[in-house]
Design goal:
The protein folds into two domains: about 20-285, Type I PLP-dependent aspartate aminotransferase-like (Major domain) (Aspartate Aminotransferase, domain 2), CATH 3.40.640; about 285-395, Aspartate Aminotransferase, domain 1 (Alpha-Beta Complex), CATH 3.90.1150.10. Helix content is about 40%, strand content about 15%. The chain has eleven helices and eleven strands. A seven-stranded mixed beta sheet has the order 1-7-6-5-4-2-3, with helices on both faces. The chain is globular and about 75 Å long. The structure holds pyridoxal-5'-phosphate. Pyridoxal-5'-phosphate (PLP) binds near residues 106 and 161.
């Protein structure tokens, strides 16, 4: 078993846990809570409402946004697609969906499940920093509308998986609104960092979104699974997911103050995930979590600086958060992309075989890139210095 919580974990993105989160999970399992409806546990429903509203305030999302916990960002994005499809109210065969070439695989997966055919999917190109090109998006939506098609959903990313690029959310939101499309923001990894005031500008324009997802189970010390899904119009969700057979009726169905989260997503039964997030926020407090995230970002900037200072290494993307994408370029191989890819794949395999740290890779503009994602709960400066030493030793 490779331990995602180990300080030598630099692969994918962090998937953190923390002692309060573990205890919250234990308590939730012990209570055996089943949170499909308000009736059997008002406390579970209302704690979820409370903790989601705290998180909304920490992220400085507009007051009209409401949060609900989903299992994963993939499910939340599927919920967004299904809601957009229902909301559009046209034959799904005419709906078009838009996302960038750097968007996460969960986006095309959601499109596939929601019945958006390949011919109705538009992959918007990115700029040299791997962020979506909004002018091309605008051209695409206009061309589709001219053809009688209906822009159904636009997905932007804050913090792409390959390089943590941040799409220009405001510009994209304005285009989506003009086109009449649902606007969903995938901030699965990076969204949590927006509780830090210096990072919050990267979420600028989020108020134009119809929905947004961010994962406390990545960077917010809450163990898997816990994904925060925020929506502007709860009724759109209810219209998509609410079905009320006789056996689910309660005395409170007519009471709009009683929220039944079964109507806010796909599953009926729901885990009491709010409890562990409540434990985390109450135990650490916002300021301690901000300090941790700031620390990870600082380590990312330190590593980026070390890579830039090393002549035989190249950094392949900006490192705005805590992910650094790099490769080794020995002079003999410079310019030979195929050889460089094989060389760096072998380098990474050697590093991982050592067992002290774990790394994963991606491709950026066709180049093989080794990703070093910092952000495990227990990762300190010495661990980042160590992974950098291990990488250079392996290269040598
Ligand atoms: C991790 C990630 C996802 C998928 O998250 P799950 O919760 O595992 O479904 C989606 N989008 C981005 C940008 C991610 O980083």
């Amino acid at each position: 078993m490779t331990h995602w919580g180990h300080p030598g974990w630099f692969a994918y993105f962090p998937s953190n846990s923390s002692p309060p989160s573990v205890l919250g999970e234990l308590l939730s399992a012990g209570l055996g809570a089943q949170c499909m409806s308000w009736e059997t546990s008002p406390a579970a429903t209302e704690l979820e409402q409370t903790v989601m509203d705290w998180y909304r305030q920490l992220l400085r999302l507009p007051e009209g946004f409401t949060g609900v916990i989903q299992d994963t960002a993939s499910s939340a994005t599927l919920v967004a697609f299904l809601t957009a499809r229902e909301h559009a109210g046209v034959d799904p065969g005419r709906l078009v969906a838009y996302w960038s070439s750097e968007a996460h695989s969960s986006i095309p997966k959601a499109a596939r499940i929601a019945g958006i055919a390949i011919a109705q999917r538009r992959i918007v190109p990115v700029d040299r920093d791997f962020a979506m090109q909004p002018d091309v998006l605008a051209q695409m939506t206009a061309a589709d509308r001219a053809q009688g098609l209906v822009p159904g959903i636009v997905v932007a990313t804050m913090g792409t998986t390959s390089s943590t690029a941040c799409d220009p959310l405001r510009q994209i939101g304005e285009i989506a609104q003009q086109a009449g499309a649902w606007y969903h923001i995938d901030a699965a990894y990076a969204g949590s960092a927006a509780i830090v005031p210096e990072v919050r500008p990267r979420l600028d324009g989020v108020e134009l979104a119809d929905s947004m997802v961010t994962n406390p189970h990545k960077w917010l010390l809450t163990n898997f699974d816990c994904s925060a899904y925020f929506v502007r119009d709860v009724n759109a969700l209810l219209q998509t997911f609410s079905i009320l057979p006789e056996y689910l009726r309660t005395r409170h169905d007519a009471d709009s103050a009683a929220v039944n989260f079964r109507d806010w997503g796909i599953p009926l039964g729901r885990r009491f995930r709010a409890l562990k997030l409540w434990f985390v926020l109450r135990s650490y407090g916002a300021e301690a979590i901000r300090t941790m995230i700031r620390g990870h970002i600082q380590l990312g900037h330190d590593l980026a600086g070390w890579v830039d200072a090393e002549p035989e290494f190249e950094r392949l993307a900006p490192a705005p958060l805590a992910l650094v994408c790099l490769r080794h370029v020995p002079p003999a191989l410079a310019g030979d992309e195929t050889a460089l890819a094989a060389h760096n794949a072998a380098l990474m395999a050697r590093v991982n075989a050592g067992g002290a740290v774990h790394l994963t890779h991606t491709t950026l503009a066709g180049k093989y890139a080794i990703r070093v994602a910092i952000g495990s709960f227990r990762t300190e400066r010495r661990h980042v210095a160590e992974v950098w030493r291990i990488i250079r030793d392996a290269a040598r």
